[in-house]
Amino acid sequence: MMRDRRLLLVLLAYLVITLAYGALNPLFEAPDEHWHFFTAESIAQTGRLPRVTEPPDAWLGQEAAQPPLYYLLGAALIAPIDTDGARAAVWLNPFAWIGDASALTNINRMIHPPGEAWPWTGHVLAAHVLRVSSALLGLGTLLAVYGSARVLWPASRTRVIMAPALLAFLPQFNFIHASITNDALITFLCSLALYQLIVLWRGEAFTQRTPREPRTPTNAFLRPLLSSRPLREVLLGLTIGLAALTKNAGVLLLLYSLGFLFLLALRDGRLRAFWPTALRIGLPALALAAPLWGRNWALYGDWLATAPFIAIAGGDRGYTLAQVLGETNGLLLSLVGVFGWFNLRAPQWVYWVWLAVVVLAFLGGLSCVVLARRNKVKGRTRVRPPLPLHTDWFLAILLATWPTLVYAGLLTFMMRTEAAQGRLLFPAALPATLGLAWGLRGWGSCMPRWLRSINRRLAPLVALAALVT
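^ thats the sequence. predicted structure below, dont judge the formating
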């Protein structure tokens, strides 16, 4: 019960902060926000999916080539709202310094007339409705992180709260989830899929009722239902299919999930069972995504519509890997907090706070690795430090593989177009925040005895420092 109360406080704080970002940030002053809005608005007005035209529709931008799920959901939300005249009411600032945080003037991408002020009406109201929906998707991501932590560390009191708290108070996470963007939906769906994979890895341990858990009608119904592994695999396939309908990262998620479950079958000595599992996951995913891929091939001769996306975004810039790695500093800064259209940075101390969080987590995790190695060498089994994410090191490696793949995919994308934006790494937020929480816990479990008492103070101080940023 104590854990639940603390979780509610974290979720409430996240909602207050994120909704405040959405209310205070001027309309469409977030990356690609007006293109996302007008793509959803176009579907609401016409009832048809957008397509790349020649010349391209300047109000849809490259989003016309994106998978449509986010825009379909957004269109359903804003369909009852009168958005006539929205294009005429939005003015672009021709002198805006996009991507230049050193500029002191013209930092707004748009010119903001008095009609954007409260009370909101028309397209302004519709845009804020979509901003609130993004905030709620972020809430779903935090619940997926919390659920994963509970499955991995059922006896923990600290890590299960630290993991969602660190993500909930990351300024860029708040900012992006206070804007109109399909990144909010793909982040949630990837986090949900990873949670489902963790549940499958843990197996029956997830479906067993703990002694203190009340037997409610909901639990009595859901637990037997969720104990069906084939059903869980079908649900995972549906989640992956929805991710593929949101962004092309869903394709990478499908390949990763199949590899994950192949190794799970190998671990359990059930390789023959992998093929039915692959069908139960792959068929629902393909059933959802294949019609979109067929449409893309018919329209553009490109099943992922990457070529028209790159063309509208400015064309293939042909960067080398070395050139792309040279943009790492901007990528990391925007992972913590770069606002507007990449032209407004947070105060410098904010970046130092988050660097300190990462360093502390790294040192705590390293101490656990060293202690585990030392105990193995000495043959001691009395002291068992917590292993990353779960008592199985291999699961930790599998989960760490997902951020690596997401980063590798982003590097490949950056070689073709400008995309050094930390928000594009958010689909890997779940294992990253779990790793930070585990590393911070190492200060109380694996450090020398005289340092272990620090952990009791360290966890709330780190969470407070994150909240302050």
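The chain has a mean pLDDT of 87.
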